[in-house]
Design brief:
about 0% strand; mainly alpha; 14 helices; about 280 residues; two-stranded parallel sheet; about 60% helix
Length: about 280
Amino acid sequence: MAQKKRRFQQLQAAAADTAIKDNRVYTNPVQKQVSEKLDEIGKNFEGKTRTVLYAVGALIVVAVLVMVFMNWSRRASSAGQAALGKAIETSQARISETGTPAGSTAKTFKTEKERSEAAILEFQAAADQFGGDVAEKAKYFIAVSKLDVDRAAAIQELEGLSSKTDEVGKMAKFALANTRVADNRLDDALVLLQELAKMDDAIVAKDTVNFEIAKIYEKQGKKAEAVEIYFNIAKTAAEAKDADGKAITPTQTATDAKEKVTELDPVKAKEIPEQTPESPFGLG
């Protein structure tokens, strides 16, 4: 069981250790994906909404699951956004055996299970109060949070949500794929990810999906297939230019992909162009 949990914690970067020490933040792998996308999406917002999004927790590049906020937030009520944001913040709260530090207003929980149960209640309350799009998104977050409470039930809920063709269905499909990887059902995970990879509007970033596919190929011993995917991600990023013809800073996924190519096929890695740093004085 512990081995499955460790596998699930690795999406594009190592998640926190399952043995949580005081004053360390634990995030389950799907929630870490949420954190990355909240960081990315936060750049598209201003004022209080952006503050709520950034409050979710560690803004590190990992994987992905809340991109729907980008379009959905424009039509959802600010109150609905705030309710979901508050629940997400709870799902990312600190795990601490000693409780909240003196002078701090931040929430803390003693166990991941306790934190997830609290988050589920908040997501359900948001769904009940606002209905509509808020309720649909809340269903997804409830299923993800439930992975720490009742994994079998959570997977069953993700299976139901993943059959939909809307934004929530696509996010649930990605989350479900990662549970399949954790359970060593690699072929099943591959089918789900390949379905997402074929979609023009898969919600989850293409590079993220393809990176996960490559990781499965690695596990299956298909080194050549894995290297090819990693290489394409890294090379495309290295050659990307903005509207002014300047190099675009690679995403963490692209950086990780390059490292993978270097590790698995050092010769092929030399085919990835090196970016020339732009001069801070505009001379570059």
